[in-house]
Amino acid sequence: MSGTTAGARRSTLVLVVATAVALGATACGGTTKNSADTTGTGNGTKTVTKADPNAPTKKDLTVAFLPKQVNNPYFTTADNGGKKAVESLGSTYKEVGTSSGTDTAGQVSYVNTLTQQQADAIAVSAQDPGALCTALKQAMNNGVSVVTYDSDTNKDCRQLFVSPASAEDLGRTQVQLLAKQIGGKGEIAILSAAQTATNQNTWIEFMKDELTKPSYKNIKLVKIAYGDDDAQKSFQQTQGLLQEHPNLKGIISPTTVGIKAAAQYLSGSKYKGNVKLTGLGTPNDMRAYIKNGTVEAFELWDPATLGALAAHAAIALESGQITGTEGETLNAGPLGTYTIGKDNTLSPGNPTVFNNTNIDKYNF
């Protein structure tokens, strides 16, 4: 961080402060960025004066990324994209987080610590939609810009959500991929991450809705299993699904950890080639399973672009170039220009389908 005072860094910001929050106060302690300058309505939101798209980009900021799970290949790629973008804009990047995809208390603790350390902005992928809200509102009350990426919180607990792609498109296209692979009939299951994961649950609701269409009348969703983004548990859940439902024709796993674990199980079993698998995965994780015939096709967006867009959004918020309001335009440099949509959300674009014809073109 620069030696600039908090007041100078926040010259364009009008802070609104919540009533004292016991969790934030006990977990953080000490002095926070705006602890001596706190007035407001208590709704936990950080409001900014009218956006100035031509405002200079602030430098020497500290932008912290808090993924759902560190050392997860997907988040490593996403956060490295964020790191590259942050540093290209003249600021300092840091990554913190837990090694578990379900440690919500750990995520809360990291948010509180970053607030105490006076980070300028936080980009977080939430493990639970509500668990982080108190801590994130406290952060915003203390002048921290908050962006969610990949997995959202409740919308009043952040300023902007960078969505991987349209939630509806992701949910529906995964069903469409699997339906084509199983010939439009048979029992299917979903292998999700944590039961509380916001993005997973949103996609699954669109999957369910897609399955109500007449064209899927011969497809039956028999179970939703949860592997908690843990490789071993996801492997075991795949085994359990096939034991419990011997007539299963296909599995959708909308999580990079889950689809890889499911592919690993299927590739060494009698079900290889007979039970179809699709979902969201990275090309590097899934290449071997595409090559050996375990998986025909899966999809994903480019996580590096997602992380980079989150970085650009966080710094634009700090610079006063955007406020996160629907209709505003974000200039994300080499990534292009994006318009903020409903619920203060923006997205890098549609997912890419990976199969044997194109997977070798990608390296992430």
Q: So, CATH architecture of the largest domain?
A: 3-Layer(aba) Sandwich
What class, by secondary structure content? alpha/beta
Order of neighbouring strands in the sheet with most strands: 4-3-5-6-7-15
- How many E strands? 16
| Oligomeric state | single chain
- CATH structural class of the largest domain: Alpha Beta
Query: What proportion strand?
Result: 15-25%
Helix content: 25-40%
Low-confidence stretches: 1-32, 34-44
Can you write the helix and strand succession as a string?
HEHEEHEHEHEEHEHEHEHEHEHEEEE
Fourth-level CATH superfamily of the largest domain: Response regulator
The biggest beta sheet reads: 6 strands, parallel
Question: What's the number of helices?
Answer: 11
- Shape estimate: elongated
The CATH topology of the largest domain turns out to be Rossmann fold
Please give a structural write-up.
With 364 residues, the protein is α/β, with parallel strands linked by helices. The protein folds into 2 domains: 6-164 and 303-348, Rossmann fold, CATH 3.40.50.2300; 167-300, Rossmann fold (3-Layer(aba) Sandwich). It contains 11 helices and 16 strands. The strands form 5 sheets. The chain has a 6-stranded parallel sheet with strand order 4-3-5-6-7-15, sandwiched between helices. The protein has a 4-stranded parallel sheet with strand order 9-8-10-11. α4 runs parallel beside α5 (133-141), α6 (167-181) crosses α7 (198-211) and α8 packs across α9. The longest helix is centred in the last third of the chain and has 17 residues, at 303-319. It starts with 5 loop residues before the first helix and ends in a 9-residue tail after the last strand. Mean pLDDT is 88; it is low at 1-32 and 34-44.
